[in-house]
Protein 1
Amino acid sequence: MYPKQLRSIIQSATTRELQFTPHISVKSKFKRCLDIIGSLLGLLVLAIVFVPVAIAIKIDSPGPIFFTQERYGLQGCPFVIRKFRSMVSNAEQLKSLVNNEANGLIFKNKNDFRVTKVGQFLRRSSLDELPQFWNVLVGEMSLVGTRPPTPDEVVHYTKRHWQRLNVKPGLTGEWQINGRSQVTDFEQIVDLDLQYQTNWHPLYDLWLISKTFYVIFHRIGAF
C-alpha cells in the first residue's frame, strides 16, 4: 500500500474512532518542564557517545547510522523518529522472513537475525533510543507515555486502541518497567498504557523514570 493511501486510511480512522479528549498530562507544565530538562540531559549523553556508537555501527554493518521511521503520536498526529540503527540496512525487505512471536498489532522476535551484533548491545542498553530525546525536546514525545505505533499498526486500531494516543508517546512507560520486550501481547500493552492514564500524576512520571533506570541497568526484559 502506498504511504499516501495508508495515511488517508489512518486519518479517516482517527476521525471515526479517536476520542478527542487529550489526557490532563498533556497540559501539565510540570511534565513539560521535566521533558525539557530530561531531553537536554539525554542529548548531552547523545553528544558524548555519538562518535563511538556511529563508528561501531559503520564497522559492524554497512548502511546509515540512523534508522528513520514515521510513527503516530498524540491524537494520531504523525511524526518522524530516529534511532541508532540496530538492524541490517535492508531489514524492512527481510521482515517477511522473520516469524512474529507476538500477539496482535506488534512485531517481536527474540532471535531476529536482522539485528546486528552492535545492535544487540544498543538495544539491551537502550542506547539506540537516545536520538529520540530530540523528539521529546520539540514536544512530539514525552519522557513518559505510550509506545509510539507505526502506520501498519494504527491502520488496524479500534476505538479502544486509539485511547492510548490520548497522551504523548514516551521514551518509557508502564510497558518499559513491566517486561519491556517480554510483553508480547498487544492487548496487554494497551492495558498498561490505559493504566498509566488512570494512575498519572506529576510525581508518577518521576517514579516511572526511576524504575526505568533500574530496568535498563539490570537489563531486565531487553532483547
Note: The chain has one domain: 23-217.
Protein 2
Amino acid sequence: MAKKGILLVNLGTPDSPEVKDVRKYLDQFLMDERVIDIPKFNRILLVKGIIVPFRSPKTAKLYKEIWDENGSPLLYYSQIQAQLLQEKLGEDYHVELAMRYQNPSVEHALSKLKTGLVESIKVIPLFPQYASASTGSVMQLVMELVSKWQTIPPISFVNSFHDNQKMIEIFADNARKHQVDTYDHVLFSFHGLPERQLIKCDHTSAYCLKKTGCCETLNDTNKFCYSAQSHDTARLLAKELDINRDNYTVCFQSRLGKEPWVQPYTTDVLKKLAAEGKKRLLVFSPAFVADCLETIYEITVEYHEEFKCLGGEHVQLVESLNDDPRFIEALAELAV
C-alpha cells in the first residue's frame, strides 16, 4: 500500500564547526533571496564580499562552544523528532527530515520520498511562526524542486503552528521547572527580522507599523505576520502560566546590520530591566522547536554575561521542545 510522505524541514546547521563548513552554511543561508531580500548583485557583494569572510571565523568559534558528542544540537534533536514521528505514525507514513540549508538537503529528502513512491507529501516547516525568510523559503524551494518532476503527487504545507496547545504546554512545563515566580521578569525572545520584511507581508500597505499596536492582536490583516504570531504565542504562554502583562516583555534577538529590525531588541530590553533594578530574568525562545546556537549560546551565555555586566544576576533559558513526546504528538496531529 502506498504511504503518505511527511517532510520535516528545519533551518539548518554547518556540517562541522570548522570555518570552511560554517562558511558554506552562511553562504547558502544568506544568499537566499528571502533571507536577505535585496537585489541579487547587492546581495552577492554584501554576503560574499563582507559578511561571510568576516563572520565565518567568529561564528565557527560559537559553534565549537555548543558542539558536543552528538554534533550539532539542532540536527541532533531534529533527527530524534523525525525518528519518533515515524514511530508514532507507523508504517502507513514515510517521514523524512531535511535542513533548508546544508544537510540533509531538501532535494535529497524529496528524492527519497519520490523513490519511496509516496502517494502524497505534507511539508511541515519546523518554525512555529510564519516568516517569508523561514517557512516561505522552505515552501518556495519545495515547489521549485517538485515542479521539475514528471509526476507530481498531491502536496500540502503547514503554514504555522504558533498557537499549538501542546507546544504551549511543553514550554510552560519547562518554565515551571525553574519556578517562574522566583524571577523578576519574563522575556519572550523571538528571532528577529528586518522591518521591511514585515511590511512586505502587509498586502494592504496601510497597516504594518502604521497602526498603533499593529502586532499585539491577530486579525485578518496580520494573520500571516511573524511579529503578530510571535505576540500571540507569548500571550498564550503568559496565559498558561498566569503571568501578568506587566511582568513580561516580547522582544527580538539576533539582529544583523544597521537597518531597523523588529523591535524591541532583546539587548535593549536587558538594559532597561537592569536599569529598573531587575536581577533575575526567565527567557523563552519560542521561535525554535529545538535548542540551538541562538538559545544555548546567545541566551544562556551572551545575554547572561551582558545582563550581569549591567548589574543583573541571572538569565535563565527555558528549554525548547526538543524530544518531548508531546511535541511528537503535536507533529503527528499536523501530519494527518
Note: The chain has a mean pLDDT of 97.
